[in-house]
Amino acid sequence: MLGFIGIGIMGKPMVRNLLRHGYTVTVFDINEEAVREMAAEGAVPAHSPKEAAQHSDVIFTMLPNSEHVKSVVLGADGIIEGAKRGTIFVDMSSISPVVSKELAETLVNYDIDMLDAPVSGGEPKAIDGTLSIMVGGKEEVFQKVKPILQCMGKDIILVGGNGAGTTAKLANQIMVNVNIAAMSEAVMLAAKAGIDIEKMYQAVRGGLAGSAVLDAKVPLILKRNFKPGGRIDINLKDLMNVVEAAHSIGVPVPLTSQVLEMFYALKVDGKEGLDHAALIQYYEKLANFNVTQTANV
Fold first, then answer.
1. Torsion over CA: 158, 145, 87, 20 (sign)
2. Strands (DSSP E) along 48-184, which ranges?
3. What is the CATH number of domain 167-287?
């Protein structure tokens, strides 16, 4: 029996994939409508993390930030109040490696093993069950849980001990978000110079500039579709964790810091709920030019 806490943009399709593979999944979220929706699709509703844990041998969380995870695990009616000894806790959220390690050390006292297993791929890969999953924890615990993770992901790698998965996710977030910013800068240059962006995209995607980010985000920009797959506020939180972790071990992150400032500017403009492809709007505001316009050159 599985538990799953946090059934939002990412958690909901992940639960659906677990149900599709025949698992019994007990779900909890503060959004009661989301719980009812999943119950209608075959999940077992719970009224608290404690109740979800009581019915689970393996319990997953997919939550916005470190404080949410700590509250769900250690707070009143939390996982530790309901989980039996021998339970495995898998946190798939993108949080601070420091918090991941602290939680793992705390849960050992309750005979609960923890894996940190953040994901990459956004909502589309959550839906089709092909997420990349970066795992930190013990090898023997990972092997027990791997068949379940394979219902939600494709590339599933044990990176190292507790905290290694969340650290790998921070590295991933640097590459993704700095890439999106660079792509947006290039698109703005081309658009204002009067180049057809679709043709430019087709011209460069087969070369060294080609990337999964380019293929995922340029079509969204061209369609002006900024419905969130990876929200700006969530990525802003991730980059804050990057800067904090990097500074704690003496690693300079100038590019990450600059993109973090871009996200802050977009948040101030009320765009925090948009997909991070909306970084193009940061450049549009500075250049006073919308990429769908025709430039006068």
1. positive
2. 58-61, 88-91, 113-116, 119-120, 131-136, 153-160
3. 1.10.1040.10
pLDDT tens digits, one per residue of 161-193: 999 999 999 999 999 999 999 999 999 999 999
* Cα gap 45→33, rounded to integer Å: 11
**φ, ψ at 138 (rounded to 5°):** -75, 140
Other beta carbons within 10 angstroms of residue 45's beta carbon come to 16
* Contact between residue 115 and residue 148 where contact means Cβ atoms under 8 Å apart: no
CATH 3.40.50.1260 for the 2-161 domain, yes or no: no
- Domain ranges (residues) in the chain: 2-161, 167-287
Considering the entire predicted model, what is its pTM? 0.89
Catalytic residue among 50, 101, 169, 192: 169
144 belongs to the catalytic site:
no
